[in-house]
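During the reporting period, we have paired protein sequences with backbone structure tokens. One record among many follows, to show the layout:
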Amino acid sequence: MGGGCFWCLEAVFSELNGVEKVVCGYSGGHVANPSYEMVCTDETGHAEVVQLTFDPLVISYRELLEVFFTLHDPTTLNRQGGDIGRQYRSIILYHDDVQKAEAEAAIKMVNESGIWGREAVTEVLPFMAFYPAEDYHQGFFRKNPYQPYCRMIIAPKVAKLRKKYLERLKAPS
């Protein structure tokens, strides 16, 4: 899934019970093994995404989609807040027909709810390849909680998650 900066989605999904692993990376483009610098040119076609490994007996794909559509604005084309470019688009890359149908149903529900005031522009595409981002992107919020972007952009999303989905969070360690 991609919904703006992958640091935000990684920070949020990492806190959910049943999510076993979150990896920042690139997908949805046409260049093999792109670097962050290449993706930022908008010429590779890739989006910043997170690859989720989760236990469907603990958290369902549908629940992950609910969190996804709650914590990013799926109605802004190729941007999230101040992050502008095709790499910041809202995108779901599905692995099978069931995931595709659930993603489309979630988008329909978002649109019918009117929660965002506009129609979602989230792309739903078949998964083809995932390229992990450079090491310094992994765990960025956890490693840099006081960095200005983390404090101003990511921390409010994490706070929203904690308030709205308290019962779905991992137990404190």
